[in-house]
Amino acid sequence: MIRVVIVDDQELMRVGFRMVLGAQADLDVVGEAGDGAQAVRMAAELRPDVVLMDVRMPVLDGVEATKQITAAGTARVLVMTTFDLDEYVYAALQGGASGFLLKDTQPDHLVSALRSVAAGDAVVSPSVTRRLLDRFVGAGGTPARDASELDVLTEREREVLVLIAKGMSNLEIAESLFLSEATVKTHVGRILAKLDLRDRVQAVVLAYETGLARPGVD
């Protein structure tokens, strides 16, 4: 059973999410919060698997709440937003969110995303990732982080990281590099471990911020 806390300052949104999730046999809504501060307290008390987090809320916004929850290790966070180019979303990803979806996402996609995040995967579509990074990292600009962070990677691992940054799945990376999917999975695991990254979302952000991958470049 995947335990979920829903966080949104609009009660109508919480009701809608609860109805969708409550219809699934493997999802259990264990709590609801109307602001980020309440979400942090609830996550600490209930220890859910996933917090479904709005970003724009009173008292404490979803970005700061995400940082506090992920730093404490109390739950994984899936951010929901109305705008796919919301600057708060990028900040939330940097702060530890495992991905984000638009609030008008189809119910089956929402359910699938929650299951993926609970299983340790990240959820950010390639197209949205590129648009976000295009806007907030900046094409052709000075890298935001020192590329020497990547020196611990082998050449093959760097290749895999570039393809992760393009939004490719393990299977797509395997086909591109003529490797088995199991080998790619091993490479991904080593990349995350060597760079002390939680998941693929953080890997994508790091690849762009160090200049290894560039927005708008295939």
TrEMBL record:
<dbReference type="Pfam" id="PF00072">
    <property type="entry name" value="Response_reg"/>
</dbReference>
<dbReference type="InterPro" id="IPR001789">
    <property type="entry name" value="Sig_transdc_resp-reg_receiver"/>
</dbReference>
<feature type="domain" description="Response regulatory">
    <location>
        <begin position="3"/>
        <end position="118"/>
    </location>
</feature>
<keyword id="KW-0805">Transcription regulation</keyword>
<keyword id="KW-0804">Transcription</keyword>
<feature type="domain" description="HTH luxR-type">
    <location>
        <begin position="146"/>
        <end position="211"/>
    </location>
</feature>
<dbReference type="GO" id="GO:0000160">
    <property type="term" value="P:phosphorelay signal transduction system"/>
</dbReference>
<dbReference type="InterPro" id="IPR000792">
    <property type="entry name" value="Tscrpt_reg_LuxR_C"/>
</dbReference>
<dbReference type="GO" id="GO:0006355">
    <property type="term" value="P:regulation of DNA-templated transcription"/>
</dbReference>
<dbReference type="GO" id="GO:0003677">
    <property type="term" value="F:DNA binding"/>
</dbReference>
<protein>
    <submittedName>
        <fullName>DNA-binding response regulator</fullName>
    </submittedName>
</protein>
<dbReference type="InterPro" id="IPR058245">
    <property type="entry name" value="NreC/VraR/RcsB-like_REC"/>
</dbReference>
<dbReference type="InterPro" id="IPR016032">
    <property type="entry name" value="Sig_transdc_resp-reg_C-effctor"/>
</dbReference>
<dbReference type="InterPro" id="IPR011006">
    <property type="entry name" value="CheY-like_superfamily"/>
</dbReference>
<feature type="modified residue" description="4-aspartylphosphate">
    <location>
        <position position="54"/>
    </location>
</feature>
<keyword id="KW-0238">DNA-binding</keyword>
<dbReference type="InterPro" id="IPR039420">
    <property type="entry name" value="WalR-like"/>
</dbReference>
<dbReference type="Pfam" id="PF00196">
    <property type="entry name" value="GerE"/>
</dbReference>
<keyword id="KW-0597">Phosphoprotein</keyword>
